[in-house]
Write a structure and sequence with these properties.
The chain is an alpha+beta fold and 600 residues long. The strands form nine sheets. A five-stranded mixed beta sheet has the order 21-20-22-16-23. The chain starts with a helix and ends with a strand.
Length: 600
Amino acid sequence: MLRIALFAAFALAASAAAAEPVHGIAMHGTPALPADYKNFPYVNPDVKKGGKITYGVVGTFDNLNPFIIKSNRTTARGMWDPQFGNLVYEALLQRSSDEPFTLYGLLAETVEWDEDRTFVQFNLNPKAKWSDGQPVTPEDVMFSFELLRDKGRPPFSRRLDVVSKMEKVGEHGVRFTFNDKADRETPLIFGLFPVLPKHAIDPETFDRTTLTPPVGSGPYKVKSLKPGESITYERDPNYWGKDIPAKVGMDNYDQISVQYFLQDTTLFESFKKGDIDIYLDGNPGHWASAYDFPAATSGTVVKDVFQPKLPSGMLGFVFNTRRPIFADIKVREGLSLVFDFEWANKNLYSGAYKRTQSFWQNSDLSSFGVPADARELELLGPIKDKIDPAILDGSYKLPETDGSGRDRKVLKQAVDLLKQAGYTIQGGKMADASGKQLAFEIMTQNPDQEKLAVAYQRSLQTIGVAASIRTVDDSQYQSRTNSFDYDMIMKAYTSSLSPGNEQLGRWSSAARTREGTDSFAGANDPNIDTLIDHLLRARSTEDFTASVRSYDRLLLSNHYVLPLYHIDQQWVARNKRIGRPDKMPLYGYQLQTWWDASAQ
């Protein structure tokens, strides 16, 4: 046994010693771009930087620190932002939007790891600097991990749980050696970790909200702000990374502003007047009929339709299983059947939507219409007995109603399921054995959500279920979702082609009690934990696909979410002054690559 242990240790050391610096790392396979790549294929490398853009968002902000629990959902947009760009803070590596999950050098110029991914070493770019001119150092990286462990919000606060040793290597390197809690995605997750300046942060006050512009390493600095109203960023003329390949063709404006609005209707009116340059539209009825104003008819406003190659994701009414009324799976399943998608799609959306049947619909990762094969069944083991047989064999489909809003056949199925959970109709009310009516509140955050909730409420009334609706302002909505203080909400779970550690924050048992996570349904199922572990540890593409499909089946079988709808397009209206690249990457349009045409 001692000889075996020594041999294993020697092999591990040899593997680590043999690691060579690489320009990029991928979850599965190898990076698509060579070491000498000049830029990402979906940017315009010859674009001239200059001009400005103004974005609009619904909500408010009272904080510039996106890494703490307090006000993390009301942090100013743009500080650390997957949509508008990480304008102030940066990560060690940059993700390519044209590959499922591949990272290339940013603050870290190169990466080292072994085949088993037992460690990762980030070698910082010697040119990397903070906005105050100080160099980015390995000490900054280690400080960031320790600071966010002690003072940060999930998931940053738990990153070091999987590390047995963190050390500086040479002048520019930081190496993380992992323990047995790590998985194959861990090195990539570490590559996306934000790096903060040790010399410019007081750890004692870090967990407090602040409106003081911070020191960052990103392409922009905070120029001005009006709390809750607007924030403006200006280009850092001394930005260190403007010429590295992962940044060529990005960050093209001299000034970026984000305006805040209380309602989407007000935001759109501002767009119509030309005060906002881009409007991201998600409403098919609105997209079809709302663009008859002068700027649109004259061609000043341009409507773009994009067709990304992404899974559908899952938009739905989410049952908070922390509430006793939603603890029974039969209750959740029965209430899910009551929603009349066909009525809502026809009367509210002109038939524009498709019903969502899977968290990864429209991709090879989806279980919808696909029977579990031998590989999946082996991965599932006894867990397969917890999955609806129809979902397991691929024949399951949400019922299609007659579109009346009260399809008797489907409502009877719902009533039968609720009966199995101990509810019966008593005096016109769906009540338990003690006579207490089945009742809950749907919390919404805007008129569009409220409209859909009213349609659902109407159908619930037909079987004696009392659903009240409460529409709250953005700050209250963010506060209540942060602390899981609701019965039911509407949420969109985005899906990528490389699901991984983000699933822990959404569905793991451990996330159920952690405020600030995306555990909106409050799942508490060891079988889900097991299947998340399977997808995180999968090595081959075949095993990964099988693990995600089996995981998809279990989530669907547990009825945490009442699935709603999706559309296979992205809609963006823009002022024609805003230009964009011709090529669209795998993940759809990327606002960070667009530019001000008047500056060309």
